[in-house]
Amino acid sequence: MSPPVECTTIQDHLRRLVAVDVVETVEIPVGERSRDLPHVFYGLTESGRQLLVEHGLLDEAEAWQDLYARVEKTEKIRKDEDAPRPKRTEP
């Protein structure tokens, strides 16, 4: 969905966000994974959410979600969007 960026570059950014507790990794357990669907997902931590709130970056979340819903997506993107998500454990 974004301009051509190496997958390793995105993974590096995600690792950095995990390291500073802005994002957490959530995985589908090994026995529940499907070969052709994603099994690793990322979500905001509470401190990450608070950081975005403090800087006013969540104020327009609904508008961004509406815009994203109108974006033309490939079949692969739609399939990945519909993939089952793991349950997040609450702290």
List the helices and strands and how they pair.
Layout: H1 7-19, E1 23-27, E2 40-44, H2 46-54, H3 61-69, H4 75-81
Antiparallel strand pairs: 1-2
Descriptive notes:
By secondary structure, this protein is an alpha+beta fold. The chain contains 4 helices and 2 strands, in the order αββααα. The protein has helices at 7-19, 46-54, 61-69, 75-81; strands at residues 23-27, 40-44. Strands 1-2 form a two-stranded antiparallel sheet. It is globular and about 40 Å long.
Number of helices: 4
Task: Give the strand line-up of the largest sheet.
Answer: 1-2
- Count all strands and give the number: 2
Task: Give the mean pLDDT.
Answer: 89
Principal-axis shape: globular
Low-confidence stretches: none
Distance between the termini: 32 Å
- Topology pattern, helix = H, strand = E: HEEHHH
Q: What's the helical proportion of residues?
A: 40-55%
> How many strands, which pairing sense, and closed or not: the largest β-sheet?
2 strands, antiparallel
Radius of gyration: 15 Å
Secondary structure category: alpha+beta
**In what range is the share of β-strand residues?**
5-15%
Please describe the structure with a list of short key phrases separated by commas or semicolons.
42% helix; two-stranded antiparallel sheet; alpha+beta; 91 residues; globular
